[in-house]
Amino acid sequence: MVRRRIKEGYTATVARISAVLITLNEEARVRDALESVAFCDEILVMDAGSTDRTREIAAAMGAHVVVNSPWPGFVAQRNLAVSIARNEWILALDADERITSPLRDEILSLAEHGFNRSGYRIPRVTWHLGRFIRGTDWYPDPQLRLFDRRKGRWRGGRIHESVLVDGAVGRLRHEIEHYPYSDISDHLRRIERYTTLWTAGAREAGRRSRLADLLVAPAWSFARNYAIRGGFKLGTAGLIISLLNAHYTFLKFAKLWEHARRHESEE
Q: What fold characterizes domain 2-178?
């Protein structure tokens, strides 16, 4: 679907874009996310049964709100939301993310001149511990979030889902801003949750935890984050994030080992 835009004396064909968000109890963050995609032709919020004011806030801001509960998993929820959107071009965003003004202008320019790729990866920068983290495994963290739904869909396991498209993929210059954690305690709670989800997926795939996974993998994670990918340039914040990323690596393999040990003792 396209629209005609008249600008400076000429008419151009402009692709319509649907911004698509999935939510669950995001009343503290959803307003800023929705404001950042106000330039899109449609905003669709797929909610998983929020018990706070997420849906009311989204509806008041003009979003099309759809409820799908119980939670079917990230991939299924995202693909359902994409399928319901009115437009073929999708801009996928989470409630803890923001489209910056330069990125908005870059996307609008592409839409006006014609998308020439099946999808576009966008760099994402995370705000944590009082600064944007441009280093460690967290950056530039390219995310394929702008795509033609006729050529792509969400795929993946319980976590770390991503969009795969048929055809060429471009890269945008400007960043999505990411605000995932309120503090270190929140970060640790997320690590606990996501390592549990990762472990469940690894068990289903038949993976086992080896001694090297427990010893070498966390050490390599810290070295990669802190030394190779520039965490040391970020001061104390870079050190803490590198250590927490190593902790994530250790904890997921420790949980996988624990599951195997428990299973063996039950046999």
A: Spore Coat Polysaccharide Biosynthesis Protein SpsA; Chain A (3.90.550)
Beta bridge partners of 5: 12
Using alpha carbons only, what angle is made at residue 67 by residues 63 and 70, rounded to the nearest 5 degrees?
150
Query: pLDDT tens-digit profile of 198-235?
Result: 999 999 999 999 999 999 999 999 999 999 999 999 99
Amino acid identity for residue 35 in this structure: E
The domain limits of the chain are: 2-178, 184-266
Distance CA 7, CA 154 (A): 35
CA distance 177 to 131: 11
39, 53, 74, 84 from 77: Cα distances, Å: 24, 20, 5, 11
Global pTM? 0.90
Q: What confidence tens digit (pLDDT) does each residue in 120-170 have?
A: 999 999 999 999 999 999 999 999 999 999 999 999 988 889 999 999 999
